[in-house]
Each structure stands twice: as C-alpha cells, then as structure tokens.
Design a protein that fits this description.
The structure holds 2 protein chains of 2 kinds.
Chain A: H1 2-13, E1 16-24, H2 30-34, H3 43-50, E2 55-59, E3 62-79, E4 82-98, E5 104-111
Antiparallel strand pairs in A: 1-3, 2-3, 3-4, 4-5
Chain B: H1 2-18, E1 22-32, H2 50-57, E2 62-66, E3 69-86, H3 100-106, E4 108-115, E5 120-127
Antiparallel strand pairs in B: 1-3, 2-3, 3-4, 4-5
Classes of the chains: A alpha+beta, B alpha+beta.
Chain lengths: 130, 156
C-alpha cells in the first residue's frame, strides 16, 4: 500500500513537457523570389514560379499577391497546478505588386520562419523592434 | 477529531487539484516581428516610396486598399501573461481551434499609407486593428437575396 502511494505521489510530481511545431502553407524558395524582376516578370510567370498566392488584394486596377509560410513553435511545462508555455511564430512572407497590365512593379520579401524558437517564458528572445 | 479534519482538508485539496480548479500560469507569446527600432524614422512621407519601404522593412503583414491609394501594415505580438485562477467546473467546454482573427486584433506595429503613385503619405503606429479599417475603401458588391438585385440596363 505504501509503495502504491509512493508511486502515485512520484508520478504526480513528474513534470509534463510539451514541445510542438506547426506550419501553415508551403515553404517559399528564396531562389524563386530572387528570379522575380520588377518591370519584366508577369503575373503568369510569378504564378509559375511561386504557385498560387495565399491572398490577392485588389488595389484599384492593380493587384497585390501575398505568399506566406508560417512556423509556430511551442514549448511548455506542466507541474500539477503550474503551467508554463512559450509560443514563438515567424513567417516567410512575399508580397508582389502588379500594375494594370499584370507586370510586376514591386517585390517585398521577409524570410524569417527560421527565427522561430522553442523557448519557455523566461528564455531570452533577442528582438529589437519598435 | 483532529485527524478527521486533516483528512477532510487533504481530500478537499485533492479534489480541487484533481479537477483542475486551481492553476498558476505563465505564458509568453511572440508572433512575427514589429519594424526594427528606428527604421520608421528613416522613411519620409512625401518623399519615400513603396520600393524604399519594402527594401527597408521587408514584406508587410497586410495590404489594404484605401480611398486615396493603399496601405501596408507591419506588426508583431509580444505578450506575457502571469496569473492564478480558481474555477468551479459547472460545465465543461473545449476549444482547440486557433483563430488568426484573434491574433490579428492584438498585433501592434505600423501602417504606411501610399497614394496611387506609390508615394508614402502617412505613417501611423499602434494597434493594427485600430489603424486601417476606417480608411479602407468599400468595394462594390452584389446585394444579397433580400429582394434587391443589381439594376439591369434598360432596353431601348
């Protein structure tokens, strides 16, 4: 009986750990993005390079397409009544702007999905932002 | 008597803990990245254009159409919640879904407004949900099935 109680007490004190990683959409190739040339690349060529966009925004007679790939990493610890959870999500994003003739005018790219970290709440995340 | 009281206290504590009624939480959430510190000061409304902004800040999170042109939004979320709670589970519900809309509402950053010639006009900082909606252009849309239909062209 004592051994059973001891085992139950020990098992209840053992911490529960959580590590998870989830992604949204497909990764964006930096090489493909580098092949986009404002003033030359057309919407059809962009679709052939990057595939279907996640979103299309109408800007008057012009359009902007969004591509994104997001990684979310979570690390957690549960000890009976104490719950600790850290979530860090970053994404690769590309916005391409087309004129009235569906020719690329501007490209904006941020490839930051690799910055996502498994971090508990007290872990340092070195970020310097507005 | 004293032993019975201790037993009851231990039993109550066990019930509370076992039912998940008491909890202490420490949560931190980081999503995306706000514009780097000092970067927005390098942009000059009236002079900088879309290419300058994209080169400096990268891809925005959102792009909106506005009455005078369009706007792009940069933002991120950095929150830390520490708390303790005691609940009485009279009913139980579980929601495991992730709502991007909820996250969007908490993003803080900047919205940059451009005219139709891609020239930067205004920079606003703050919660993204408070910045652009009033300035969005309403696009024409079909009326629903409530008896009203788009007007057809007249014959003759």
């Amino acid at each position: 009986m004592r051994i059973t109680i001891l085992l139950l007490a020990c098992s209840s004190l053992l911490p529960g750990c959580l590590v998870s990683r989830s992604t949204v959409n497909e990764p964006i190739s930096a090489q493909s993005v580098a092949r986009l040339v404002p003033g030359q690349t057309t919407a059809a060529e962009t679709a052939a390079l990057l595939g279907a966009p996640t979103d299309v925004v109408q800007l008057g007679r012009r359009t902007a397409w969004r591509y994104d790939y997001t990684i979310e990493k979570r690390a957690g610890l549960a000890l009976i009544v104490v719950g600790l959870l850290g979530t860090d999500a970053h994404s690769d994003r590309v916005w391409v702007f087309f004129d009235e003739d569906d020719v690329l005018t501007h490209v904006g790219a941020t490839l930051a999905s690799k910055d996502a970290e498994y971090a508990l709440p007290w872990s340092a995340l070195h970020r310097d932002s507005e | 008597m004293k032993r019975t009281g201790s037993f009851l206290a231990a039993a109550c504590l066990a019930v509370l803990l076992g039912g998940g009624c008491l909890s202490v939480t420490w949560r931190r959430e980081h999503r995306f990245q706000r514009p780097p510190r000092g970067s927005l000061a390098k942009l000059e409304p009236g002079t900088s254009d879309l290419a300058d902004c994209l080169a400096l800040l990268g891809a925005p999170l959102f792009v909106y159409e506005t009455p005078d042109g369009f706007a792009i939004a940069y933002g991120g979320l950095a929150t830390t919640d520490r708390g303790a709670s005691a609940t009485l589970p009279l009913s139980r519900s579980v929601d495991a879904s992730f709502s991007m809309r909820d996250v969007d509402r908490r993003l803080r950053g900047a919205v940059l407004f451009f005219d139709e010639d891609y020239r930067l006009m205004i920079v606003r900082r703050g919660l993204l949900r408070r910045l652009p909606p009033g300035d969005r252009r309403e696009r024409p849309r079909l009326v629903g099935d409530d008896g009203m239909r788009p007007r057809q062209g007249r014959d003759g």
